[in-house]
Structure formats: structure tokens, C-alpha cells
């Protein structure tokens, strides 16, 4: 595309965006939302509150501050299944709920992922 064509295209896009912006500025719903936002921010400043404080006050179940949020999210998370691997060469058993177990990782490095996965004895909830 030539530079002139690109310029003309961008100019048309700019004109369209300006028309859209003018239409939005005349929309009563936007004016109402902007007024609400301004009043809410003024009220928060008057009482020294942050948006997170307002959210916690209005919706305590959706409290997203610090440890409460992470504790709440972890409480809803399903516990991983316990996997029990037995090395047929050494007889050693590893029980893990994740794939980052040091011993399991060393086995996979030594024997390969497929071989170690074939040593899976059982899975428990």
C-alpha cells in the first residue's frame, strides 16, 4: 500500500471515530454514567475510601483484598488427586499431588516421561 493510500485510509478512520465520539457525547446514558462516576469519586474522597473498600462494602463475597481473596479462591479450588508411582527397578514409591516432586522429576530425567508415567500405580482423591 502506498503512503498516500495509507494516509487517506487513516484520515477516513479518524473522521469515523470523530463522528462516533460526537454521537456518544450527545448520548444521555453516557452523561448519566459520567455524572454518577464523578459523584461516587467525590463521595469516596470525602470519606477517604478506595474502590476496593466500596466493593468490599457492597459485595462482601467478592472481597478482593490481600489474603482474603486468595484464601477464598483456594477454598473453592478442587484438591489435586494423589498419584502413587512405584519404580520397578528400585522398588521406591513416590506419592505426589503435583508434577513438581523432586524425586519424580529426577526419575523423568533419568528414565523419560513415558516410562515414569507407566509406573503409575494408583490415583486417589
UniProtKB/TrEMBL annotation:
Pfam families assigned to the protein according to its UniProt record, in alphabetical order: MvaT_DBD
UniProt keyword terms in alphabetical order: Coiled coil
Taxonomic superkingdom: Bacteria
Spans traversing the lipid bilayer: none
Presence of the UniProt keyword Coiled coil in the record: yes
Residues in coiled coil: 4-34
Domain MvaT DNA-binding per the UniProt entry, residue ranges: 83-119
Protein name per Swiss-Prot or TrEMBL: DNA binding protein
Protein species of origin: Halomonas colorata
